[in-house]
Amino acid sequence: MSLLKNRDKKFLTENTFVYIPPMAGVTDIAYRTLCREMDENVVLATEMLSSKSLTFAHSNRKEHQHAQRLTIPDGDELTGVQIFGHEPDVMAEAAKIATDLGAVFIDINMGCPVAKIVNGMDGAALMKEPELACQIVEKVKAATHLPVTVKTRLGWCEGSLNAPFLAREFEKLGVAAMTIHGRTRAQKYTGSAKWSLIKEVVDAVKIPIFANGDVKTLEDAKKVFEETGAYGIAIARATMGKPWFSKQVSHYIETGLVLEEPSLEDKLKLAQKHCELLVKFKGNHIGIQESRRHINNYISGMSGAAKFRSRINQIESLDDAKREIDLIFINNQ
Ligand SMILES: Cc1cc2nc3c(=O)[nH]c(=O)nc-3n(C[C@H](O)[C@H](O)[C@H](O)COP(=O)(O)O)c2cc1C
């Protein structure tokens, strides 16, 4: 059964119900390459991209500035591009550019809580401006033949939980699916995600809803499905340093069986590969800088992780990274 019929690319099918949503500074091409290797069915998305800077770079023939952030491997039929902004025409133009560059779906960010984003009326601020939010959706829809999705929170604050209302409006405009992070903008990342309120969105519409927020274990994933009745689940932070987690989740939801964790050796090989990919795509300086954070995610919970942290924060080269990872392996055998 395909939930979205008549699409030229697969996007959502019965196997595609786990989504690793955008994480700025994380879901880059290196991260997505590994996640895809681990799970052919996981839905992925780029980091959020500014519609303004995307269109500006494009019109000034500076596509290379965004090329790397937008890179989607050939043949990947499940990776979307997330754009943010508040000007309907600029968002439409950005959607057009992302479509030409190989996106499989276009996701509109209406959930980012960061002050500098919402102060510019972008991200979660759009939840306070339903009319403008709808205009953006309409224009973006008209600019692309691809499925258009929207990621929101529950609302701006406790007193304005308008995600079900917005979902109904967006469904009327032809939005293909939505991701709902079960927090308000006011909460940012504090407190806990309220899955029961995501259910209100699920009940309000027929389009697929991906429930999002605070899924850290297989049991959490099961509970989210049970409590929300959502079509799918979006898991962000719990995949950091665990690119195999999405596959474990989908297998558990489908079969009730727990896929074995990769061995220590395989986990550390993945960490090394992650560093290699970062250096390949971003060069030594940025690649190694960004590798530090990722290695720390992979080794979290391993014996001696705290001791290694300060050493990892000082690595300067791929050789340093590999040596430290090898030492962690020896330390944990
Ligand atoms: C480092 C980081 C960067 C994020 N960047 C984005 C982003 O670019 N766009 C977006 O819609 N959400 C972004 N998010 C929010 C996540 O997609 C997700 O909604 C949130 O982390 C809750 O899910 P989780 O509990 O599974 O992590 C980001 C989250 C983190 C931790």
Describe this structure in words.
The protein has 333 residues and is an alpha/beta fold. It folds into two domains: 18-255, TIM Barrel, CATH 3.20.20; 264-332, Non-ribosomal Peptide Synthetase Peptidyl Carrier Protein, Chain A (Orthogonal Bundle). Helix content is 47%, strand content 12%. It has 13 helices and eight strands. The protein has an eight-stranded parallel beta barrel with strand order 1-2-3-4-5-6-7-8, surrounded by nine helices. The radius of gyration is 20 Å and the shape is globular. The model is unreliable at 1-8 (pLDDT under 50). Bound molecules: flavin mononucleotide. Flavin mononucleotide (FMN) binds next to β2.
Which consecutive residue ranges, at least 5 long each, have pLDDT under 50? 1-8
CA-based gyration radius: 20 Å
What structural class should be given to the helix and strand makeup? Answer: alpha/beta
CATH fold category name of the largest domain: TIM Barrel
Strand fraction band?
A: 5-15%
Number of β-strand runs: 8
> What is the CATH first-level class name of the largest domain?
Alpha Beta
Bound molecules: flavin mononucleotide
Total helical elements: 13
Question: Per the principal axes of the C-alpha atoms, what is the gross shape?
Answer: globular
End-to-end separation: 45 Å
Query: Helix-strand pattern, N to C?
Result: EHEHHEHEHHEHEHEHEHHHH
The CATH architecture designation of the largest domain is: Alpha-Beta Barrel
